[in-house]
Amino acid sequence: MAPAMALGLKVEVSGLEGKERDNVLALLDIYQERDAAGLDLPRVRALHRLAPQQIRDALAPFGLYRVAVDATLEQSAPPDGPWLARYRVRPGEPVRIGAVDYQVRGPGEDDPAFPERFPMQRGDVLLHADYERAKSELRYAASANGYLDYRLPRHQVLVDPEAYSAAVHFHLDTGAQYHLGEVTFKQDLLDDGLLQRYLRFAPGAVYDPDLLLELQSRLLGSEYYSEVEIVPHKEARDDEGRIPIEVIATRNKANKYRLGVGFATDSGPRFSMDWRRRYLNRWGHKFRTELILSPRHSEWNLDYRIPVQDPTRDYLTIRPQSVYDDTASRKGWVHTVQLAHSRLTGGGWRRTGGFDFRYEDIALNDAPAQRTSELVPNISWSKTVSDDPVNTNRGYRIKYTLLGTFGGVLAEHSYLSGQIQFKWVRRFAERYRLIARTDLGATLADSVDDLPASRRFYAGGDASIRGWDYDALGPTDPVTDQTVGGRYLAVGSLELEREIRGPWSAALFTDFGNAFDPDYDQQIAYSAGVGVRWASPIGQVRLDLAFALSKDNDNGGWPPARLHIVIGPDL
Hints:
This protein is mainly beta. It has seven helices and 25 strands. The protein has helices at 4-7, 18-27, 29-32, 41-59, 128-144, 192-196, 209-221, and strands at 9-14, 68-75, 83-90, 96-105, 151-160, 165-173, 179-186, 225-232, 242-251, 255-264, 268-277, 286-293, 297-307, 314-326, 330-344, 350-364, 369-386, 394-405, 415-428, 432-444, 488-501, 504-516, 525-536, 539-547, 561-568. The protein has a 16-stranded antiparallel β-sheet, with no helix packed on it. A three-stranded mixed β-sheet has the order 1-3-2. A three-stranded mixed β-sheet has the order 4-6-5, with no helix packed on it. Helix 2 packs across helix 4. It is flat and about 100 Å long. Residues 178-245 form the POTRA domain.
């Protein structure tokens, strides 16, 4: 028995293209086994005898029933040359539909959910995939509109080889239409009034299984429950066809803990602890608290949430927070207590509005610490769209923020500040990604000196302009030559990334912009650099070498460079 390499077999199929050719090659055994180990001449001849019928069977779904196949099997340069199997296919004309017998009978025969005409009509080419699609759509129309007992007394396609014509028969008996009845919950955790707000339908709605799947998904997504079972009690339906629904839910574990380590050039090594309490009481209150420790940025925050209205979209939040920063331009504490209402609106936008009471004790550069307190009304709109939130091929993130204070109302000065943050990711040409981001801000105030240090705009760092330290860029005091921050911000970035091998890729990028203030002279800063990326399970690990092209270089030669390391998702 000769081995496959010694035998040598080539298979050629001509006369077909596109999907027809692909289907033939997928079902043609001699083509699939052409490189098989241990293939011998008797096996090749047996496969060759089967090939013409296999080709005809593969073309039947495309309405081709008069297929002619010229098949040859010969050896080139005997006795040791390779064998060549040739199949010249003449598919002929496709069979067309000559008659359509489409009937909808029963209580729902006049329901507009069912089309008046079958999706395939007389004269159409008989494509079996189209028939199966049409049958599936009609079955879904029946179940999605409450006809749970529908039947298909007759559903078939008959092909007349003599007349070379097909007849489609599709009969649907709808049966009675059912409706959703009262929903009861079997669980021991939350108030029934809160759970009723998870419903997207009222008793009496047409029975649609998708509505019940959506309810199950919403309850599981709340994290209150580890298991949710939806039980329709069809046997208990009333005279109007209403089916009672029972929801059986098993409470989730109350606590979830997480420890993490990370690194970013802006903050240095980072250690984090996270405690999430999934539920606190029967009204669905929950909280999450997090502690982050790093040499340059540390914070503690507590996010206490109270569901309101639609509990999957709306909540009140009480958020105390303490942050310590030690950056290139400022050092000190900011303590905040936020009260806000957050709502998911149409189009996927999340709107959050409320009040922050802030107290900060921050020293700018080498100046004495400034202690300020203020009440800050604020509102923001944010939206994230992506095909993969960790390693994104196509998506964007955008956020608008508007905030301000009123002098004399728990604040020393009045100001109004707005900011737009945008990042966009798009894969193209299979191996390339283009990444763009911008950060724009403006503050209306009499002077930058009227703004607390944490409300001024700065630039520089991993997520701003690489090549500079975090918050190192901005309006500079001409006397002290130190960054004081500004009332305006305009920063942008463009990055081209190419996959190299597996999860590894390389990038070229440029960053540009600065923080500005009318009372100070300030130039646009710009940088360029190269980077290496590793698409890890928790997000990209990004290593960038950025050259500060606009930075003064007293020594000449290469511009000053800075290494940036960031770990995290794209958006």
